[in-house]
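User: I'm writing a tutorial on reading structure tokens. Could you give me a worked example: one chain, its sequence, then its tokens, then a sentence or two explaining what the tokens reveal?
Assistant: Sure. Here is the example chain.
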Amino acid sequence: MNASPHNTGSGKALLARALKPLAWCRRVIFERWLRLWSLARLQEAIGQSIDSSNVIMGAVELHGSCNIRFGRNALIYPGVYLETQGDGVITLGDDVVLSRGVHIVAFERVTLGDGCMVGEYASLRDANHKPDPVSIRDSGHLSAPIDIGSNVWIGRGAAVLKGVSIGAGSVVGANAVVTKPVAAQQVVAGVPAKALR
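And here are its predicted structure tokens:
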């Protein structure tokens, strides 16, 4: 005989109530330890202290020379990818938010000012491959710094390319490709990104 939907719901509710203390333990204890562990791993990898006000929600993927500087009160979601090559440096100001899947690559310099928020899967790369008809992979790179002003919001999936500066208080729309400087207080969107107002 099949269980009635009413009986299944009661069993599910009972099980959910029974598991609630475990869920609390995971949320309160495990997630706090994960944040501490992620902060410790990051400090060890970059070889310098990171202010304890920064919240590292999960593993950050690091590549290259790990020349990364953190301000205070950052919120870094799991799955962020940070890469510096050679003397390249990534500098994050205070109160920066890097959402899940953000990629930042610096061959020269990528700087994010205080209060910047970068949406999921956005990409900031200060270098491009040199064109080469034989082997693009082995052609080397052309780089130019990226400078993001304070209180800038970069939308989900946006790409900010080499040599771009974005002025304070600007907004970059989702999936935009920013190839040229953006003045302060502008809203840009599209491919390539253009000012909306």
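What the tokens reveal: The chain has one domain: 51-195. The first helix runs from residue 5 to 46.
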